[in-house]
Design brief:
With 212 residues, this protein is an alpha/beta fold. It has six helices and nine strands. The strands form three sheets. The chain has a five-stranded mixed sheet with strand order 3-2-1-6-7. Strands 4-5 form a two-stranded antiparallel sheet. Strands 8-9 form a two-stranded antiparallel sheet. The mean pLDDT is 92.
């Protein structure tokens, strides 16, 4: 079956998981009450396990500490593993729902950014958030679902300035800061949501590759 609609660009982010050039927005599931509640529970379990290990440590003759695994610790660790798996499943499932929805609209091509996830993870304020967003998983699912559905899958060059370029006139705003949530173009006067502007640029990037 041949895809019937025009191509789309997908801007992945931290504030929202994905903003698509067709106007659809997918929220960051990690900001939901349910995920926050489970993450809190996970932290509590982690602290409990650490405490139990501290309580059950013994000093060897050599002056080193030996940690004993009690039945209680094993039980807590199993609870922790289960909870961790549950969180992973919820996130993967959300990725599946989102990518399936985008694919169902039958775009002729899909463009995503080549995100430097490892580099982003070095920012200690953002590393946990980035890890939870699972960008790799989103891209992996989008790619194989595109291939199954004869949709061209394009990865934009890592240095393509999708955020700092005006999607309407192509001018470049080198002063755009991470905190700027809107893209205001000094050349043509357009005002767009920053992520939506980036998604339109990614779509334009895909179009130029197709037209080559």
């Amino acid at each position: 079956e041949i895809p019937t609609n025009e191509g789309v660009g997908i801007d992945l982010g931290i504030e929202k998981l994905a903003v698509v050039s067709d106007g659809s927005i997918y929220r960051n599931i990690n900001k939901t009450k349910e995920i926050k509640r489970l993450e809190k529970k996970k932290k509590r379990l982690q602290r409990k396990v650490s405490k139990k290990y501290e309580m059950n440590k013994t000093k060897t003759k050599g002056g080193e500490y030996r940690y004993q695994k009690t039945k209680n610790i094993i039980k807590l660790e199993n609870q922790f593993k289960k909870l961790n798996q549950r969180l992973t499943n919820i996130r993967h499932n959300y990725s599946h729902q989102t990518t399936t929805e985008i694919i169902k609209r039958k775009p002729s091509f899909i463009v995503v950014e080549d995100l430097n996830v490892n580099g982003m993870m070095k920012n200690k304020h953002l590393s946990k958030t980035i890890q939870q967003q699972q960008f790799y998983e989103f891209r992996r699912q989008t790619q194989y679902k595109s291939e199954w559905n004869n949709i061209e899958f394009i990865v934009a060059d890592r240095y393509f300035p999708s955020s700092k370029t005006c999607s309407q006139c192509g001018s470049y705003n080198k002063d755009l800061k991470l905190s700027d949530r809107e893209y205001v173009c000094d050349c043509c006067g357009v005002v767009l949501d920053r992520d939506y502007n980036a998604s339109l640029n990614l779509k334009n990037y895909g179009q130029s590759i197709i037209n080559q």
